[in-house]
Amino acid sequence: MNEESPILASNFRMRVCSLLLLAMLFSSCAGTIKTTNYAKEPNRNFKKACIISTEGSKYIKFRFGVLTPFGIYVPADKAAIEHSTIGNTAEVIKQELENNGITATIAAADTVLTDFDLIIEYNDVWRWDFKKILDHLDLFFISGTGDQLLAKSSFSIYKNKELHNFPTPEKEVPKMIKEFLNPK
């Protein structure tokens, strides 16, 4: 038997494993968006919207995993904590509404709202993975009078949080607004 054959087989297995690992890293998951419409007859002819800016974001602190003989153990997340505002979620929502022909204004939570067709409130949760990334985002679409929840759209990073495409409001908000304005 040829002495090089075990070495060649070992090199081949190593290359295949390396290619599979790279494929997993570059084909990461983008997360999921779920939009639920509550209005019986959705009216999507909005002209003027108000985005209620949050006082802050929530943040999930990073926890180191442990390398064991059986693989990597990643501890469960602790509850998200209050944090100063992260990212530019309100501005991204405003820009996306304006891209869809809806004039938008960003206001503080205590602002008296008048003369709007649509009110949008949001909650964002972030985590760290080489940079701050969006873990969860809820958009609440409320009637201009403030008395009816029209729809709720939720983005959540994929359950396997180690494989993702570094989600941001710039990537996810346009999809969420599109699902709201064009219900199936």
Query: What is the general shape?
Result: elongated
The CATH architecture can be named as 2-Layer Sandwich
CATH overall fold name: Double Stranded RNA Binding Domain
**Helix-residue proportion:** 25-40%
How does this model look, in words?
With about 180 residues, this protein is an alpha/beta fold. The chain has one domain (about 30-180): Double Stranded RNA Binding Domain. Helices cover about 25% and strands about 35% of the residues. The chain contains 3 helices and 10 strands. It has helices at about 5-25, 90-100, 170-180, and strands at about 30-35, 50, 55-60, 65-70, 70-75, 80-85, 105, 120-130, 130-145, 150-155. The strands form 2 sheets. Strands 1, 2, 3, 6, 7, 8, 9 and 10 form an 8-stranded mixed beta sheet that branches. A two-stranded antiparallel sheet has the order 4-5. A hairpin with a 5-residue loop joins strand 9 and strand 10 (about 150-155). This is DUF4823 domain-containing protein. Keywords: Signal.
Summarize the structure.
This protein is an alpha/beta fold and 184 residues long.
SSE map:
Layout: H1 4-26, E1 32-37, E2 48-52, E3 57-60, E4 66-68, E5 71-73, E6 81-83, H2 89-99, E7 103-107, E8 118-128, E9 132-143, E10 149-156, H3 169-181
Parallel strand pairs: 2-7, 2-8, 3-8
Antiparallel strand pairs: 1-10, 3-6, 4-5, 8-9, 9-10
Fill in the keyword field for this structure.
184 residues, alpha/beta, Double Stranded RNA Binding Domain, 8-stranded mixed β-sheet, 3 helices, 10 strands, 26% helix, 33% strand, signal, DUF4823 domain-containing protein
